[in-house]
Amino acid sequence: MKIGIIGAGFTGLTAGLILQKKGHQITILEKESVPGGLAVGFRAPGWDWSLEKFYHHIFTTDHYIRRLGDEVGVKFDFRRPNTSSLIDEEILQIDSPATVLFFPKLSMIERLRMGMVIGYLKYLASWERLEKYTIADWLPKMMGRHAYRILWEPLLMAKFSQYANEISLAWFWARVKARSTSLGYPRGGFQHLADSTAAKIGNMGGQIFYNLAVSQILQANNQLIVHCQDGQTYYFDKVIFTLSNAALVKIAPQLPTDYKEKLLSYRGIGAISMVLEFKKPFFRNQVYWLNICNDNYPFLAAVEQTNMIDKTHYHNHHLLYIANYLVPTHRYFQMTDSELLQEYHPFLNKLHHGYQNNLLKCYVFKASYAQPIMPVNYSQRVLPHQTPLKNVYLANMQQVYPWDRGTNYAVELGEKVSVTLAGDK
Ligand SMILES: Cc1cc2nc3c(=O)[nH]c(=O)nc-3n(C[C@H](O)[C@H](O)[C@H](O)COP(=O)(O)OP(=O)(O)OC[C@H]3O[C@@H](n4cnc5c(N)ncnc54)[C@H](O)[C@@H]3O)c2cc1C
């Protein structure tokens, strides 16, 4: 069968790998010049590993992507880096039961209560009973308002902005359930993993075309006709579409109106990532991940990559991400890199006074669709892979509920959509 896959992120790459192995003729069409999607990397002169434009790591429980790594010969290394929170301008480590037990901003009763709630969620086997509650309702009732307000509310607000109060407790359960204190990273970076997967698809006879933005999918005479922006046309028996729901509405005009309306009713949020390259470390106490729980800060986390991955891979420089999730209409999306740095500057200076003296370079990356919004009872809204347009299959991050978007779930999704497609006549 001739199968077209739109998008060479981890969903598209995994589906391509599996279906090519099954003997189908795979063609992946990708808008960018390299594979990897939201996990794509870049490499500055002198670096021997690439760095993701948006921070990335995996958890020990991320079996799907670890298996993909094994298959294409890319190893993951696991470490236990320091995760902390910034509360009232104080950096406090909070990444293990012991650090929760001694957490100074909460009373002993509050710490015990929080520990019990997290423990309960961690050991609860399923999420179905939880999905009718919002995190914003359930969590303060269970762990107490003060603990919620200090630690969790700022994170929820930062991650989901105006949608924070709508997010289903099942999503929170999934985050607690899947998280490990050890974090994994592929040797060479996620770009190396994407490149190795793409190379394996190529070695088996599959084709990947880059710099090709698909503009339309049409169905005629039992065939799918895929038009690209540069005027090229491809013909397939089946197509897997891995972009956002909104993109499917634009690209597949023959879809029925009610399905298009449904697709457009799903919401997502964008992300802006700033990467700062330094001569010296940014954090003095080896912090890898700093959650910002002070709501006056203009960003949600600061992540020092080189406190998890050895700086020798980046020309002995130190790399810091400044992370933000924002609605795509937010004014930061219109700012130049230096305007954004100016906006962040007073707050970076609070975290490390005089940081500018060591600053070598600033890179900014923006994605208008990065994080799906999953409100209560979302399981009833998860779309099947088959779309009403025969032989067109949808596989994107809106379908990995209750799990948080992630490369592991992209790999799982790629596996699932391949099984569905192969099973259909
Ligand atoms: C800020 C941030 C932090 C993250 N952190 C982590 C993390 O720590 N760990 C983790 O595992 N995951 C993380 N993720 C999530 C992870 O990157 C994604 O969930 C995953 O990569 C999604 O893969 P995908 O293939 O489904 O979609 P995508 O990666 O979005 O792939 C879609 C592909 O389609 C291509 N495309 C778009 N339009 C067209 C077109 N018209 N024609 C052809 N191709 C097109 C795109 O260029 C892209 O390559 C993070 C994401 C963000 C934004």
Automatic annotation (TrEMBL):
Coiled coil: none annotated. It comes from the Bacteria. NCBIfam families: PRK07233.1. One of its GO terms (molecular function) is oxidoreductase activity. Signal peptide: none annotated. Residues 10-396 form the Amine oxidase domain. PANTHER family: AMINE OXIDASE, PROTOPORPHYRINOGEN OXIDASE. InterPro entries: Amino_oxidase, FAD/NAD-bd_sf, Zeta_carotene_desat/Oxidored. This is Amine oxidase domain-containing protein. Pfam families: Amino_oxidase. SUPFAM superfamilies: FAD/NAD(P)-binding domain (SSF51905).
